């Protein structure tokens, strides 16, 4: 899924605020992940993409939902334990 594609500049910078397009993607991800299974799948997808993009700032990634004002309940991290999501 490309919900977070517009977030890459913010995730690379590691500071400031994400763009409106990025936050729209975060909100879309929230809407698409209502079940535990969906949340775990999204978490695994985020981890896989994060592993391919080495310049992502982990602090920026973990703060993304809060900065967008979204209660995502999915960690945005390369090291998340996706199976612990319920």
From TrEMBL:
Residues 7-82 form the Bifunctional inhibitor/plant lipid transfer protein/seed storage helical domain. The keyword Oxidoreductase does not apply. SMART domains: AAI (SM00499). Belongs to the plant LTP family. Plant non-specific lipid-transfer proteins transfer phospholipids as well as galactolipids across membranes. May play a role in wax or cutin deposition in the cell walls of expanding epidermal cells and certain secretory tissues. One of its GO terms (biological process) is lipid transport. This is Non-specific lipid-transfer protein. It comes from the Eukaryota. One of its GO terms (molecular function) is lipid binding. Pfam families: Tryp_alpha_amyl. InterPro entries: Bifun_inhib/LTP/seed_sf, Bifunc_inhib/LTP/seed_store, Plant_nsLTP. It comes from Manihot esculenta (Cassava). Keywords: Disulfide bond, Lipid-binding, Transport. Gene3D superfamilies: Plant lipid-transfer and hydrophobic proteins (1.10.110.10).
